[in-house]
Amino acid sequence: MRLFDPHIHMTSRTTDDYAAMHQAGVRALVEPSFWVGQPRTSVETFVDYFDGLVGWEPFRAAQYGIRHHCTIGLNPKEANDPRCREVLDILPRYLAKDGVVAVGELGYDAMTAEEDEVFAAQLALAVEHELPALVHTPHRDKIAGTRRTLDVVRESGIAAEHVVVDHLNEVTVDLVADTGCWMGFSIYPDTKMDEERMVTLLQEYGTERMLVNSAADWGKSDPLKTAKTAQAMLKAGFTDDDVDTVLWHNPVAFYAQSGKLDLDGDTDIPVDRSATFAGNSILRGARPES
Amino acid sequence: MTRKTSPDELHVLLGTRLTGEGEQWLTAALDRTRQDRAAIGALFPAAGRRCGRGPLLDVESSRPPDPRFRGWTVDDAARTLMMAALPLHGTDLGDEVAALYRYGDAAEKRGVLRGLGPLDTDGKLGDHALPLVHDGLRTNDTRLITAALASYGARYLQPAAYRQGVLKCVFLGIPLADIAGLDERADAELARMLTDYARERRAAGRDVPADVLGLVDPTDITLSREA
After folding, report:
1. pLDDT of B158-178, one tens digit each?
2. Is this entry keyworded Lipid metabolism (chain A) (predicted)?
3. 3-state SS of chain B: helix, strand, coil percent to 5?
């Protein structure tokens, strides 16, 4: 079984997670840029974070046989801080980079005027750079937030099939199902969605334009939720092909719209543990043999 | 003295390594760069995807490889031409090149460092980009250190910094044939540093790399204790 996690924050995870993910079948993932748990206070710290997403993190993933791509954007929470707004000015440089397959994650947090502005500006960048957009729905006031999100997407002129609306659940999926946007679901240990509820939605809505992710980050979350959802699908009578559609072909199809998804036609990438990134190795205590 | 490489010369060489599609993209990218100084921000990162990432020199060619292009890749050359197309000089050019480096991934940074030499053919850059060379030398990334010691670094680094750069290459196993300027800049102090290094290796029962042996007096590195 090959798996593609279309939304996971590996910067917050350990090498043990990478090893367990590979063991479970994960061969590719996308790491959206997001809030790191504590507010940032300057543009420069974003730049260093973006550099990690296109540099050190793909290297670390490759050490465990996993292809790493990312999305770049200014998240809504920090869009409210005027000190971070200038991140918008440097986004074009990063959206052009090889491993960047979408703009994101975008959307609303508290639905402020500042968030409106930054959201719209980044959807315009997605159109300009011919990239898909990863849009999340807010944690609070979710139904109203999802409606407003879809309005802004429509007004932006971005093609619906270039947008995934993420963190959906039973009460918000209907709002998105008929829009032509992709539907994203984050499977969490306690909040958002769980595997069984996800299987029920797949039975009801089918597998088309459906994306399942773990959205694992620095909080209580589980990087193996894609694999666990796959198992739950099989147990409920879905075929291997159905699982492959939802957990491989769909994310590949969505992010391939960027023209920059590089899977090299082979999901088993060779692992070279002696490699270094900027002279750093993930091996501790021993320099790789030269 | 090694002959300077001009962007025009680089363009001719690159032309032999591009596909039709790559050539078309590069021509359009250079035109846009000449007209709009901001355009390079999004064009520069795309050079590898659009033009290729292979070696600039044709490895199957029967002609001996030109040592000036040793280690150059197709995207290094494309990025150099883009920088050369910027309608800027002096400090302004230095500022834009610094931004390309600051926001660059490893391949882009390498392209900037390698491209500085050709960019300065007619002295239009001067030493404005020297801080980038120092930044490259501070990393532990062998690709960046090698590129930092390409022709521009060899031209402008102060003697102490150049010597430390060479010594860092030796420690990291970067072949000295991959860096520029040794013929002109190897001095008695560098020989002293390499001799001490070679003695230390011998004292530890380790081999001394052949390219280091070529720069020191063999009679100086026989094992002896410091008085």
Report:
1. 999 999 999 999 999 999 999
2. no
3. 65, 0, 35
Residue B62: partners with Cβ closer than 8 Å, 6 or more residues away: none
| Residue of chain A whose alpha carbon sits nearest to that of B139 | A278
How many domains does the structure of chain B reveal? Answer: 1
Q: In angstroms, rounded to a whole number, what is the distance separating the alpha carbons of residues A141 and A25?
A: 35
The CATH superfamily label for domain A3-256 reads Metal-dependent hydrolases (3.20.20.140)
Q: Is A262 on the interface with B (CB under 8 A)?
A: no
| Range of the structural domain that residue B120 is part of | 7-157
Give residue A193's pLDDT.
Answer: 87
Q: Specify the pLDDT at position A290.
A: 39
Question: What are residue A100's phi and psi, to 5 degrees?
Answer: -95, 110
Q: Is residue B31 part of a domain?
A: yes
- Tell me how far apart the alpha carbons of residues A130 and B81 are, in angstroms, rounded to a whole number: 25
In sequence order, which residues have a C-beta less than 8 Å from that of residue B121 and are 6 or more positions away?
Answer: B4, B5, B6, B7
Q: Which of A98, A260, A262, A264 to mutate to test the interface with B (most CBs of B within 10 A)?
A: A98
Does A105 sit behind a cis peptide bond, omega within 30 degrees of 0 on the bond before it? yes
Strands (E), A89-248: 100-107, 133-136, 163-166, 182-186, 210-213
